[in-house]
Design a protein that fits this description.
224 residues; Diaminopimelate Epimerase, Chain A, domain 1; Phenazine biosynthesis protein PhzC/PhzF
C-alpha cells in the first residue's frame, strides 16, 4: 500500500503553520495524469507532488484542479524530503541548498503562473481582507511591515473553484513579488508562515523556508 507523506512547508519560526503538501513517493498506482488529478482533488491540498524518479528528483505537481509545471512550496518540500541537490519539475531543473533550518530552491520568475500582485497601504488592511468569491483569478495581497528591512505581510487568494479559498504560503507568488521589487524579502503569509527570498545572478531567485513532516498515512485511507 502506498504511503502519502504530508509536509508543512514555509513554517514559522516556532514550527507552526506552513502550507500543507501531499507527496506520493511511489506513484505507480497513479500512472497517468487523470489518476493523479483525481487523487489531488480528493486529497484537497493546495498541491500534491508525485515523485517519478527519487534519484533524479523528477516530480509531477497537481492542484485539486490542474497540473502545474512549477510551484514553490511543493518543490521546497520535495527537495527537503528527498534530500537532493536538484529537483526536476516540468518547468526545468531547480537547484537546492540546505542552510541550517532552511531549505532553498533556485528558480526563475517566468516559470511561475501569472498572479495579480496588489499592494495595500498597511498590514491592517491586508489582515482585514475578506475571502473573495471563487472563479475571479489569483490575488496576492501584500503590504510592507518594515520596508527598510524587507519585511512583508501577505495573503494569497487563489479564487479557484477547487475548494482552496486562501493559500497559507505560496512560493510562486513570493517569486514574482521579489522580481518586481528587486530585493530580498522576508514574507509573513497566512496565519504565520514564513517565506524568505533573495535575487540571484542571471535573473534567478532563491526561495527558502522551513519544512516539517507530519505522520505518513496510507494513500488508500484517503480514498473513498
Amino acid at each position: 500500500m502506498n504511503e502519502l507523506d504530508v509536509l508543512h512547508v514555509f513554517c514559522g519560526g516556532d514550527g507552526r503553520h506552513g502550507n500543507a503538501l501531499g507527496v506520493v513517493r511511489d506513484p505507480r498506482a497513479f500512472p497517468d495524469q487523470a489518476s493523479r488529478q483525481a487523487l489531488a482533488a480528493e486529497l484537497g491540498f493546495s498541491e500534491t507532488v508525485f515523485v517519478d524518479d527519487p534519484e533524479r528528483g523528477v516530480v509531477d505537481i497537481y492542484t485539486p484542479g490542474l497540473r502545474l509545471p512549477f510551484a514553490g512550496h511543493p518543490l521546497v518540500g520535495a527537495a527537503w524530503l528527498l534530500d537532493l541537490e536538484a529537483v526536476n519539475p516540468p518547468a526545468g531543473e531547480v537547484w537546492v541548498r540546505q542552510d541550517g533550518e532552511f531549505t532553498w530552491i533556485t528558480a526563475r520568475a517566468e516559470w511561475a503562473p501569472p498572479r495579480r500582485l496588489e499592494q495595500y497601504a498597511s498590514v491592517a488592511e491586508v489582515d482585514a481582507l475578506p475571502a473573495p468569491p471563487p472563479g475571479e483569478g489569483w490575488l496576492y495581497a501584500w503590504a510592507w511591515q518594515d520596508e527598510a528591512a524587507g519585511r512583508v505581510r501577505a495573503r494569497a487568494f487563489p479564487r479557484r473553484d477547487d475548494g482552496i479559498v486562501e493559500d497559507e504560503a505560496t512560493g510562486a507568488a513570493a517569486l514574482l513579488l521579489t522580481e518586481r521589487l528587486g530585493r530580498a524579502l522576508n514574507i509573513t503569509q497566512g496565519r504565520g508562515s514564513q517565506i524568505l527570498t533573495a535575487p540571484g545572478p542571471d535573473g534567478t531567485i532563491e526561495i527558502g523556508g522551513r519544512v516539517r513532516l507530519a505522520i505518513p498515512v496510507p494513500v488508500a485511507s484517503t480514498r473513498r
